[in-house]
Write a structure and sequence with these properties.
The protein is mainly α. The protein has 17 helices and three strands. The longest helix has 32 residues, at 315-346. The radius of gyration is 21 Å and the shape is globular.
Length: 399
């Protein structure tokens, strides 16, 4: 009886942890809080429960022997070394919260299988989606804020980003797991409409692309052939642009023009351009973890762009800028281990193959227009760590 109770408490705590990671402000705002203080409180509480509660029956296999595990140790250790850990209370809390991710992921991989984890994740996503939609209707000032407001732990962000990321994950899970064919398609249509109205363009295009890939593979298409098609299309696009010059970068208005159609990237081009100029003199070690937020005024970011920048709006640029080439090198090895883990799962069966391809596309594409690799309240770092730990445990047990 006690074992069942502890299992339920752990599962509930993981659900809360995942909601906090992916839910943005959905918890705090619905209960009258503005800011991230409640998220941090629930984050640390749920982490503590998962880590501290006694565990009698661990899953078979040990994960600490894997080389990829030690890669994670080195990377997160470097993050701590490049953080302003004890400079301010805010930086201390954020650094500790970020470094907790691999510990919670490691413990979770000892408790839940990949399928069990995604069942809990699915419940968490439903909460985030429902609460986000409530926010969009009743708290539009919070849910669709154009820029970040507030400082420190009280800074608030646009809820539509959290809604978009979690809806894309929901599409992945339903398209792979659902046995009733029309339900995922109906939900895909609904999700697309919601994302159009919430102006989450990256999540919209990502969801449709992943849905296409999943159905392509289900119709006995191969990953290799899909990759070849993508490569041919990319090369052809580059060739056509070289010959006909139909893609132009408007430096004055910060927009891309393709066949006379202007894509403004919602203000990202000036951000990337300015942050790249900051990367060049800090290329080796970077400006430090959390530097884009905490050093916004000192580095002239706020003055140059006209607002307090929350992140680089590009995960790869964020890693390079904050951790430098050395940190980027460590992170590239982490991503290599992550891809290795996905390849391991892709060999098990069709569902696992679909999962591997979809998660790969989800994580790698979404970070081109948003920064999730170094963000505390993002589900992506946890997904990367959990999948690495889980595959390492399964590989060792199979051996």
């Amino acid at each position: 009886m006690l074992s069942v109770t502890l299992s339920s408490i752990r599962a509930f705590s993981l659900g809360v942890f995942l909601i906090v990671l992916g839910g943005g402000l959905s918890i705090g705002s619905l209960f009258g809080f503005e800011g991230r203080e409640m998220n941090y409180a629930l984050y640390f509480l749920s982490s503590l429960i998962i880590l501290v509660l006694p565990l009698k029956n661990k899953l078979n296999g040990t994960t600490y022997r894997s080389g990829c595990v030690w890669v994670l140790v080195v990377f997160y250790g470097y993050v701590v070394a490049r953080s302003d850990l004890f400079t301010t209370f805010e930086s201390t809390v954020k650094t500790i919260a970020y470094v907790l991710v691999p510990f919670v992921a490691y413990r979770s991989s000892q408790i839940w299988t990949l399928n069990e984890f995604f069942e809990i994740l699915c419940v968490a996503i439903y909460w985030v989606v429902i609460s986000s939609l409530i926010m969009l209707v009743f708290f539009p000032d919070l849910a669709i804020s154009e820029f970040a407001r507030g400082t420190g732990l009280g800074g608030i962000y646009s809820q539509k980003n959290s809604l978009g990321r979690m809806l894309s994950l929901l599409i992945i899970i339903l398209l792979i797991k659902s046995r009733v064919k029309f339900i995922p398609l109906a939900i895909l249509v609904i999700v697309s409409v919601v994302l159009v109205y919430s102006n989450s363009r990256t999540s919209l295009y990502l969801s449709l692309s992943i849905a296409f890939v999943i159905y392509y593979i289900r119709m006995r298409g191969t990953i290799f052939f899909a990759s070849v098609l993508l490569l041919v299309f990319t090369v052809l696009l580059i060739y056509l642009d070289t010959v006909y010059d139909f893609i132009e970068l408007d430096n004055l208005n910060y927009a891309l023009t393709i066949f006379s159609y202007e894509i403004d990237l919602t203000g990202r081009l000036p951000i990337w351009s300015y942050l790249w100029s900051l990367f060049e003199p800090n290329a080796v070690f970077g400006i430090g973890y959390n530097g884009v937020w905490s050093l916004s005024y000192e580095l002239g970011i706020e003055h140059a762009l006209g607002w307090h920048l929350t992140d680089s709006h590009n995960g790869y640029l964020e890693v390079a800028l904050q951790l430098g080439i050395i940190g980027l090198f460590f992170f590239a090895i982490v991503l290599t281990c992550f891809i290795k883990a996905l390849v391991f799962y892709s060999k098990i069966g069709l569902e696992e193959r679909l999962f591997s391809v979809s998660i790969f596309l989800y994580i790698f594409i979404i970070n081109f227009t948003s920064s999730n690799f170094l963000e505390v309240f993002s589900i992506i770092p946890f997904l990367i760590c959990f999948i690495i730990f889980s595959s390492s445990r399964n590989a060792e047990y199979a051996a």
